[in-house]
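Form 7-S
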Amino acid sequence: MKRVSSIAVTLAALCCSAAPAQIAPAQTAATPHAPVVTAQQKPAQNGHVIVPVLVHDKKGNLIPNLTANDFTLTDNTHPQTIQYFAPDTSLPLTLGIAAQTGPGMSSWIPGERRAAEKFLTQLMSGSASHVQAFVLQFNLDVDLLEDPSSSPDKLHQALGQLGIPQFGNDTNGAYAASSFSKHKRRKRAGGAALYDSIFLASSQVLNKESGRKALIVFSDGIDRGSKATLNSAVNAAQTHGVAVYAIYFKGVPPPEEFRPNSNRNRNGYPGTYPGGYPGGYPGGYPGGYPGGYPAGYPGGQPPPPQPSRRVNGKQILAEICSRTGGEMFDSKRASLDTLLAQIADQMNSAYILAYTRTKASSDSGFHHIVLKPRQKDLHVQMTKGYWLPQK
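Output:
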């Protein structure tokens, strides 16, 4: 077992699968087979982009039998030619299970464990492609309980560790002490490094994988104490082609006050962004994310949250999922088995969109992809875009 924070980050701009772009040799419209996925290639090398896509009607039903002629496509507003658009489940799938632990979430863990075990067993036994999964938990710490594996026994054993501290000072025990106390109500409630868990799972685990990639998060959606920001977590998922799905649980009530300096006294993650995380991402991406958030955050550090601001965890999870091509589900709406089955259905129903980026849309920075249905009342579910590194 390893703590994710101890794994070195690779900043390669891998793309594709269960969300953003992945790179492969160019295909023609007449090619009957899905593009070959080669994860080690970068967008700058040949400009070929592969994106998983789901299409829903106005009632939320998935729409089958669509073709490239049913859509128009732009990349950073530049029209693109769709070279391939068809369902394909032959690409390998790597899936992460990320469960929030700690006070306020402990009562959900047994149900999450049972549902995840059943879900992974069915997914692996019923898939025609290679499927592997990994398990992590997060509270103030982020623990990787099992590396990507195709062994149900190893994954079930890892799921059995949810809520159990893995290290001496680990905060991931379901009943572990936290900064929240009955006698000290003014301290922030619990601790959930939600953004760190998404950032690290995307940039340190899924970055090494090819094919379709997804992360399922069990959480109340309230981040408390991450070094990563909401945007940097989403950007990491988009860069490495990760679709984030989330199941929302109403856990500890959102704190009324956020401490602007709460992140500044924690140690960074060695070997990640240059110099680790201390004080935020040192310097950030040079000049911020080119083409993204204007000028980035000065010095790489976001402005502190405003005091007395309530946060809607459900909306935060929905935003993360929407921007990466996944979907957020409310645990109150159906059983975990039903919700996970819906996620599996999406993974097995995705179209694969492939196109070769035009020269006009080859600038570095964030590339916004818009796939517009010609038919009204259809909704496209896919990543909002991908990152292209500087040349």
